[in-house]
Amino acid sequence: MSTMNTRRFLQVTALLAAGLLMAACGKKEEAPAPAAPAAAPPPPVVKTYNVGTDAAYAPFESQNDKGEIVGFDIDVVRAVAEKAGIQVNFVNTPWEGIFNALAQGDRDLLVSAITITEERRQTMDFSDPYFDAAQLIAVPAGSAVTRFEELKPLKVGVQTGTTGDEAVTQLLGKNSTAIKRFESTPLALQELMSGGVDAVVADNGVVEHYIANNPGGRFKTVSDPTFVPEQYGIAVRKGNAELLEAINRGLAAVKADGTYAQIHARWFGAAAATPAAPAAAGAPAPATPR
Ligand code: ARG
Q1: Lateral strand order in the sheet of 179-182
Q2: How many Å lie between the centroid of ligand 1 and the Cα of residue 185?
């Protein structure tokens, strides 16, 4: 086809197309065909909320052999979402960037054994508490440590930016070089195993779980009454009242109908299944169910 013919061909095609379009539009005005696919209503858009979680925190959130994110927190949020009528999708999110990911809209909510603190409340909103926790010290079985204060001359491992980090920073001082900060709690505990630190301070549930699952490491735990009681909450962006309300509604429902107690028993054993009841410090944690 010569250039001229091509142009002509295109012109004719365009005219034909326009004509067809007009005819179609006209027809539609006269008698809208309800059966036509174009007239079918679009399927309802169900928003899926992205849930950020640092999945290196068993038994609250971790990845199983298949790479799936599992844990107590995950089961709680799944159950809450079902009651609230919302859809959730869990996204593994490193702890150090997790609050930013929420603030910037990359995540809609966070569940990550997050302690509700006044400081964090400035930049995010929290659901009602869903779990009670406290800091717990892990030391080698032969260690002489009996109290938190006795960590003062020692090298202490923590996960960066956690409440454990805050407690140890307060004890040893902001500029202390004896604080070893790790990007995950398992990394801090591994360092304890290899002797790189003398103690680790982290959430009781995670320390107990780790020790129960690594008996070869021969650690023991030391609790201290000066550790303030902590409570975990599900975080949403500041001002996201609608989502927060849905979550609190779902949370109340799972607590009321026994779902929460079931999930608690699944991950922590049958005892102490009251929502937000003090966790039994020092009690051996059961192995992660598969
Ligand atoms: N509860 C502690 C805090 O809020 C530690 C949470 C760490 N969670 C995690 N999935 N790494 O600071």
Answers
A1: 179-182, 156-159, 199-203, 135-140, 219-222
A2: 9
One domain for residues 188 and 149: yes
Task: Report which of 133, 182, 134 is spatially closest to residue 156, judged by C-alpha positions.
Answer: 182
pLDDT computed for residue 69 by the predictor: 98
- How many separate domains does the chain show? 2
Reported pTM: 0.80
User: Is 79 inside a domain boundary?
Assistant: yes
Tell whether 176 and 245 lie within a shared domain: no
Q: Which residues line ligand 1 (CB under 6 A)?
A: 54, 57, 61, 95, 112-115, 159, 162-163, 185, 203
> Are both 245 and 116 inside the same structural domain?
yes
Centroid of ligand 1 to alpha carbon of 60 (angstroms): 10
Instruction: Please determine, for residue 267, whether its predicted confidence score (pLDDT) is greater than 60.
Output: yes
* Domain identity same for 116 and 139: no
Q: Are residues 129 and 237 in the same domain?
A: yes
Domain that holds residue 199: 135-222
User: Closest ligand 1 atom to the C-alpha of 162?
Assistant: 12
* Span from the CA of 150 to the centroid of ligand 1 (angstroms): 24
Query: What are the tens digits of pLDDT across the range 146-197?
Result: 999 999 999 999 999 999 999 999 999 999 999 999 999 999 999 999 999 9
CA atoms within a 13 Å half-sphere pointing along the CA-CB vector of 148:
18
- The Cα–Cα gap between 81 and 246 comes to 8
pLDDT at 46: 75
Does any domain span residue 203? yes
Q: Return the CATH number at 175.
A: 3.40.190.10
Does one domain contain both 187 and 71? no
Rounded to an integer, the average pLDDT of 127-154 is 97
Q: Cα(1) to centroid of ligand 1, in Å?
A: 70
Tokens for 204, please give them. Answer: 């009781």
What is the tens place of the pLDDT at every residue in 38-61? 667 777 777 899 999 999 999 999
In DSSP terms, 231 is beta-bridged to: 132
